[in-house]
Give the backbone structure.
Amino acid sequence: MPSLRAHLVKFYLKRIMKSKPLHLMPSSELTAGAERVGYRRAPKGALFHPVDAGNVKGEWHQTDGFEHGPTVLYFHGGGYYYGSAKSHSRATFGLAKAAGARVFSQNYRLAPKYPFPAAVDDAIAGYKWLLEQGVKPEHLIVSGDSAGGGLSLALLLSCRSENLPMPAGAILFSPWTDLAVTGASMDSNEKTDSMFRKIHIVEGAKYYLGDADPKTPLASPLYADHSGLPPILTFVSDDEALLDDSTRLHERLLEADVDAELIIENGLPHDWHIFHPKFPETSKTIEQSAKFIHARTTKG
């Protein structure tokens, strides 16, 4: 059973998000609202450093005094339409502390001004930039939530097609992998999902896709060939509309002989980890992620 605090957060989200026409609201308004969830300044014992390296923009989130450890390249969610490094800073600072890592939380270009494949191009640029900074791929984990989870997968596919070295693994939180919106959970979980109605997802996909085929693999990685991808850990809640985006992805990863693990939590909101440490399940997920990071970046 979810904790009382998790229930309260779900009630709050239904009041402030699900009840509103998210697909009709300005990106700036949604981003401002999302940023109120994140930290206004770095938490005690942590530091953030803004990055503006041409077409690579974002923030380093790390503990004060960090010298050595794994690196995480993180992509925020928000339907490719809103969000920022700041809006997801509770999760990224949590990962940095729990894993003894530094997290580069990248701000990628957003739709509809910059439709597909702008976000993918930015993700590739961010990954190459980290390698140019001396980050070793075997010490690097790619991660993201919702749209950022799909973008993480698109980056892995791009690394394979461009013959770039693969990162050590990927962590996906409630990833959006099917912009054709064909999952049965879009209907079966519409009432239990605390953040979205199906129309939010259907119309939001159009902003990002533009004229692209909704099943093109770099936009909808569910439909890709997954062979050769590194180990992948996926989290999802059984209550959310995007449940089938994770369960079907996991099945296809296993079919492609990818080292994949799927953790399905009960009754939690979409992207619950971004509320860390507001309720106990967020800390559990961050700790599980930290163990994955250590296991994958310390081999050999």
Remarks:
- The longest helix spans residues 280-297.
- The CA atoms of residues 120 and 151 lie 6 Å apart.
